[in-house]
Amino acid sequence: MVTEPQMYRLLVTGSRGYDDVLSLQAALVKVYQGRPRGSVLVVVTDWDENPAYCSGAASIARQWAIEQQEAQFAVQVESWPAGWEGPCEESCTHLDRRVWQDVSLCPEAGQRRNEEMCASGIGAALGAMRVGEDSTNAKDCLARLFRRNIEFELIIQGHGQGLPRDLVSGRSRPR
Known about the structure:
The chain has helices at residues 21-34, 56-70, 109-118, 136-147, 165-168; strands spanning 7-14, 40-45, 75-79, 98-100, 103-105, 124-130, 152-157.
């Protein structure tokens, strides 16, 4: 009897401008090595084909996962792009759509995507944050993980002094 391998789901969220490839890759390797024995690491990101809607952290994590998968390691990747340009849903509470670079966007698409990702059986998460960036959707995602009691580790790029208190409080550990 052949059994399917267990999946260990790791959510990676972060700043759009995050570009510390080595630090994030080191954290991914650490999670891979510490995953439950015999399980497949599924790297879940908010990666989007449109780089304007995608975080640097998501791009780095996605690329790492693809390279590991190609090297025959037990790694898979899942991308959860937000439907920014799609129609609003009945549950939307905003008054107007936002216009950014002449494109009409649903301002709640990122929050909906974050909730769906966090509810998809996440085992742990990494937050790759760059000091000086607002990172609204990444902070929203981390807050949702915290409310679900899902542990996450923060990887901070830049000097950590002056980070918003809400970003470094809770069960996170700044690196």
